[in-house]
Design brief:
- This protein is an all-alpha fold and 155 residues long.
- The chain has one domain.
- It is 84% helix and 0% strand.
- The chain contains five helices and no strands.
- The longest helix has 34 residues.
Length: 155
C-alpha cells in the first residue's frame, strides 16, 4: 500500500477522524476527571472510572458513525465488542497506568513536576501529577483502542 493509493488515503482520513474524536473524547474525560477528583471523595481512580465511562458512551457513537462508518453491522455485536475492548483499555490499562505512575513508580511523574516547577509552575504539583499520569494512561489506551476497533469492533 503506497501513500498515493486510495486505501492509504482512506486510512489516513480515518486516523485523522479518530484523532478528532479522540480529542473531543479526551476533553470530556479530562474535564470530568479534574472536576470529580477535585470536588468529590472518589479519588483519582474513582474519578477516572466515572469520567472514562461518560467519555466511552460518546466514543462509541462517534467512532461507529463517523470514524469507522459501521452502521451496517450488528449494533449489539459492536456494542459488546466495543465495551470489552474499551473497558479493558480504560479500566485496566488506564487505571493500571495511573496507579503505576502515582503509587508504584512515580519517578517519571516527579520528573515532570520538577520540570514544571523549574518553569515557574509552583503550587500546582497535585494537578500536574494527576494530569501527567492521566495523559500517559490516555495515550496507552488510545493506541490499544484504535488497533482493536479497526480489527475487531467495527469490521
Amino acid at each position: 500500500m503506497t501513500i498515493e493509493s486510495p486505501q492509504s488515503r482512506n486510512e489516513l482520513r480515518r486516523v485523522g477522524k479518530f484523532g478528532v474524536v479522540g480529542v473531543l473524547n479526551t476533553v470530556i474525560d479530562f474535564t470530568l476527571y479534574n472536576i470529580l477528583s477535585s470536588t468529590t471523595f472518589l479519588g483519582l481512580v474513582g474519578s477516572n472510572i466515572v469520567s472514562t465511562t461518560v467519555a466511552m458512551v460518546f466514543s462509541f457513537f462517534a467512532n461507529r458513525n463517523v470514524v469507522f462508518k459501521a452502521k451496517q453491522g450488528s449494533i449489539k455485536k459492536q456494542t459488546v465488542r466495543f465495551l470489552l475492548v474499551t473497558g479493558f483499555g480504560i479500566y485496566i490499562l488506564q487505571n493500571g497506568t495511573i496507579a503505576i505512575l502515582t503509587q508504584i513508580w512515580p519517578a517519571p511523574i516527579h520528573a515532570v513536576v520538577q520540570y514544571a516547577n523549574s518553569m515557574g509552575l509552583h503550587d500546582h504539583n497535585a494537578v500536574i501529577t494527576k494530569n501527567a499520569a492521566k495523559l500517559v494512561a490516555t495515550v496507552v489506551s488510545l493506541i490499544w483502542n484504535y488497533i482493536m476497533y479497526k480489527r475487531l469492533v467495527f469490521l
